[in-house]
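Q: What does the predicted 3D structure of Cytidine deaminase look like?
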Amino acid sequence: MNYKDLVEKALKAKENAYAPYSKFKVGAALLSNKEEVFTGCNVENASFGLTNCAERTAIFKAVSDGKKDFKAIALASDSDKIITPCGACRQVLLEFGPHIDVVMANNKGEYKVNKVMDLIPNGFDTEYLEEENKK
Ligand SMILES: O=c1ccn([C@H]2C[C@H](O)[C@@H](CO)O2)c(=O)[nH]1
Ligand SMILES: [Zn+2]
């Protein structure tokens, strides 16, 4: 699937966002290496800190369906401004690969692309824990 279509899926997923507190609706569409698409939206909570972002919702849906290899994730909100993932989502994306393309879009479907590794340079990854387990 091309990135323009993936962005369209993110924009559609945004409509399911549960964002009564921020009113900031976000949608994500995660593309697996087998061309499957997993969508997600932000899910807020009266206890604000429990909010789950759209990106993590999509990743957790995919992983719980047994998928762990991803090519790209698109995200979009209602804003004219291109949205970028928060730090928590960058970290969660890194777990599944520094080479995943993050397709960051605005409400018109215009987008820019960065790899996860460029969005979270020197991120904490699984290699540190593997080293520890070898001891
Ligand atoms: O990349 C982002 C940035 C923010 N949000 C959500 C979290 C919260 O519900 C609302 C405002 O921060 O937007 C996302 O889902 N993804
Ligand atoms: Zn986030």
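A (community wiki): The structure tokens above were generated from the sequence. The domain at 3-133 is CATH 3.40.140.10 (Cytidine Deaminase; domain 2). Residues 53, 55, 85-86, 88-89 surround zinc ion (ligand 2) (CB under 6 Å).
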